Amino acid sequence: MRFIFLFTFLVTTVFAFAQRNCGSTLYNSRFANEMVTQQNNSTSSRDTIVDEILTIPVVVHVLYNNNAQNISDAQIRSQIDVLNEDFRGMNADGSNTPDAFKAHAADAKIMFCLAQINPEGYAAKGIVRKYTSTTTFEVNDAMKFNAAGGDNAWNPKKYLNIWVCNMGSNAIGYASQPGAQIDRDGVVIQYNAFGRIGSLMSNFNKGRTATHEVAHWLGLRHIWGDNECGNDGINDTPQQSFYNNNCPSFPSVSSCSVDANGDMFMNFMDYTNDACMNMFTHGQKTKMRGQFAINGPRNSFMNSFACDSSMATAAPLPDDTSVTVKTIAPSFNIYPNPANNEMNVVGLNGFDLKGQLLKVYSASGILQFTKSNLSSSEKINISHLNSGVYFVAIISGKDRKIVKLIKQ
Question: From the candidates 213, 228, 342, 378, which is the catalytic residue?
Fold first, then answer.
C-alpha cells in the first residue's frame, strides 16, 4: 500500500499544472528547523472576541519577467474578493455543498484588504510591481528577497505578504505556517492561478489556490493529513484515504471513509479543481481564528491599522519609486499623557487644528469616536474610554499625524 501511495504521488507530479499540487507540506518540512518560537509572544493588547470580524492587510508582490506575468490591478482585486467570500462563507457556490455536509460549513469571520498604508506610513494600494530577470521561481523562497531576484516582505507581523510569480516547479502555490521565520513568512501563488479574471488556467480560474494557501498560512493542514487515511487534526473533517483531484461526484467513498457520506472533497483544503471547492468547517474556523489569540503566532495582526487609509501620514508614493516624495505632516500634541478623563489637543510648529478631523482608535485598530471641526485648541472628554493604549489621528487633507495616548 505504501508503494501505491508513493507511485500515485510521483505520477501526479509529472503533469505539472494539470492537477492541483500545493508545495506547502514539502516547504514547511524543509524549513521546520527554522521555526521561531519568539513569534508566539503576544504583541497586541487584547485577545480576539467571539465572532469578531478579523481583517488582514494584504500586500501583493507582482514579480514579472514578461507582460503576461504582470497581472492587472483588477485581477488582484478579484482575488481579494474571492478570499473575502470564501472565508466569510458568502461564496455563491456554497449552495453546491452536499446536504450531508451543509451543517459543517462555516463563516470564519476573517476578511482581507489590500493594505492602504505601507510600512513607512505612506498611503498605499497594497500592490508592489517589480520586473525580475528570473524567469522561474522554485519552492525555495527566492521570490521573497531582493538579492535573489524577488522582493523583500513588508513587516510580516502587520501584513500578509503574497508573492505572485512564475513558478517553475509543478506546485502552483505554497505557504509558510504560523511561527515561520519572519522574513520568509507569507504565501506564494502561480501568476495564472491568481484571481478569477484574466488569463488563467482552466482548472484554477476561480481564485481557490490563494484560498487554499492562505488557509495554510492560518494553520490548516490538508484535509487528508498528508498521509494515507491521515488526520488533519480537525474533528469535523472526515477521514479520507488521500487527496481528491478534478471534480468527484458525491458521495466519494473510500476504505477510510467513516460513513456513507465519504470524503469532504469540496473542502478548500482538498486538491479538487477550483470549481469544486466551496467550504471551510467550524473546526477549521476555530483553528484559523486561534492564530490571532493572545500568545498566538498571528496575534500581532490585532494591532495592525493598515486597512484604514485615514491612518496614513502622507500621500502615496508614485509607482515609479525612483521619484522621491517629501511630505511634511502636521504636528500636534496631547497632554496630559497618560490622561484620565480629559485630554487637551494643541497644534505645534504653526499647525492650526481649526476645522480639522480627529479620530481615536483602540490599540487593535477599532475606531472609538470621531470629532470634526476642531477649534484652535481642544479639551476632549475621554472618560468613556477604558484604560489602555489608544491612537489619536488628526486628518488634514492628505496629511495624517498620529499620537499614542495612554488612558489611565
Answer: 213
